[in-house]
Amino acid sequence: MLKIRMLSAEEMSIPVAEILDVKALKRHLNQLRGFPLGCRQRFLLHGDKLGDAVELDPAMELDLVLLEFAEVSPARVDDLIAAAAQGSKAEVQSGLQLPQNPNLSREDGRTALMAASEAGHIEIVNLLLQAGANTDVADVHGHTALMFASVHGHVEVVGLLLEAGADKDVANGNSITALMWASWRGHMAVVNLLLDVGANKNAAHTNGQTALMWDVADNSGRTAVMLASNAGYVKVVDLLHEAGLVDDSI
């Protein structure tokens, strides 16, 4: 059994049969005790900080320090968001190790997770999620990280966000969902993934257009599948036929 001491003098004994390293231990304690993820859990062995990749031994006696987020300036917030957008792993890690709150945003509500998701930097997205980034925070327009990833066709990022619990059906101020964005931009792989996880096919834009280009006309008499066809998104239309969501009479 791995022994862990906290500053409060509380002690825990953790079986390490299925917990191979420090990173896995952090996840385990997050699920077991609700401890914060990422760099806010700091493990020490004989006073030395342990990195996430350090393998665990049942004979270890570790000290655990739970850190509060550091106070940072708006400039530091902007720096983390810019680093996430650029895919700069070293800069993002540096900010998170302060530890900086990954959910801090610019005045327009944009967060580092949104920036990384929009750019398709899956490694950065993963780092931010491990640090406790909120998948469902929205900017001033109601756009979430999942929407940014979907509209740009970053299917791996979409999958990672969904695994982290992102709301697949959340809509922006115009009632546009991630599924709508992916459909209207012709990103078949993203559409398919969102369908697989049960995204709402019946959600509708405020102007009457349906979420998944199914057989319902908008206020101008245009069906969503017509919009897809006119835009040249043949593969998306084919996918909708296969899913049984498009009437062949259209």
UniProtKB/TrEMBL annotation:
SUPFAM superfamilies: Ankyrin repeat (SSF48403). ANK repeats lie at residues 108-140, 141-173, 174-206. Pfam families: Ank (PF00023), Ank_2 (PF12796). The keyword Cytoplasm does not apply. InterPro entries: Ankyrin_rpt, Ankyrin_rpt-contain_sf, Dendritic_Spine_Reg/Scaffold. Keywords: ANK repeat, Kinase, Repeat, Transferase. The keyword Repeat applies. GO terms for molecular function: kinase activity. PANTHER family: PROTEIN VAPYRIN, ROLLING PEBBLES, ISOFORM B. This is Kinase D-interacting substrate of 220 kDa. It comes from Symbiodinium microadriaticum. The lineage of its organism: Eukaryota, Sar, Alveolata, Dinophyceae, Suessiales.
